[in-house]
Amino acid sequence: MKKLLALLLYMLALPAVALDGTDILKKVDRNLEPESYEMLRKLINIEPNGQKKEFVLYSAKKGRDRIVALFLAPQSDKGRATLRLGDNMWLYIPEVGKPMRITSLQSVTGGVFNNADILRIDYTEEYHVEAATNEKEGYLLTLKAKTAEVAYDKLKMWVDKKALLPTTIECYAASGMLIKTLRFKDSKDFGGGIQRPATVETDSPLYKDYKSVMLYANIKKREFPDEVFSLNYLPRMEDLRK
Q1: Given this model, what pLDDT does residue 10 score?
Q2: Residue 61's closest CA among 105, 99, 20, 30?
Q3: Which domains does the chain show, CATH number per domain?
Q4: Which of 52, 111, 143, 172 is the most exposed place for a label (fewest CB within 10 A)?
Q5: pLDDT tens digits for 20-39?
Q6: What is the chain's Cα-based Rg?
């Protein structure tokens, strides 16, 4: 009994093992999506009166910081395409005929999701892990933007311990003001070893009673040539789906 008590006292005296927040964040990135993939999403903007506007996007991503998206619906937006290379973003409108610069805080769909949410790159590409704590409901990661070009200065990310996937993310401005909250729901097996939330909902104190929802219909690993992620390829995005 004395030996057991001594062992317990020894274990209590040992320093707690620090969480490796960067490693957790890297695993979150890969569990959310492969490094190279294609996907279909539906974005729904819901106004306070219940009116909805829906968009369907086909997207392709390669590496940690390259992503393109093609609008399939509604008809008024069909053929538009967006490209993100690191912090740089463009919108291609067929009627205009050449890509236009857009910013991360704008929204090509006009809802609570901004361009940084719609054209999301790896979290580890944009953020340092400032702190990682082990809480009852999951890991809590506090993330700080690496540059001023990032849409949010700070994130608080709650991560499911078993799945290593986010459950809630709070997005903050440099002033400390809460900009929006992202909620990840409805875990789904997409095949190919990909199991992740199929629904992401967001709301913002800046847009009272407005809400936006992102529904993932398909995510599939696929390799792409580098030329797909270029301004010259935007008019030919439809070719990827043939």
Answers
A1: 44
A2: 30
A3: 19-241 (2.50.20.10)
A4: 52
A5: 999 999 999 999 999 999 99
A6: 20
- Alpha-carbon span 28 to 165, nearest angstrom: 5
**184: CB partners within 8 A, 6+ apart:** 165, 166, 167, 168, 169, 197, 199, 200
Mean of the per-residue pLDDT values of the chain: 93
Cβ(132)–Cβ(145) under 8 Å?
A: no
pTM above 0.85, yes or no: yes
CA 212 to chain CA centroid, nearest Å: 14
Q: Is 192 left (phi over 0), alpha (psi -120 to 50) or beta?
A: left
Beta bridge partners of 166: 159
CA distance 1 to 91: 71
pLDDT per position as a tens digit, 54-104: 999 999 999 999 999 999 999 999 999 999 999 999 999 999 999 999 999
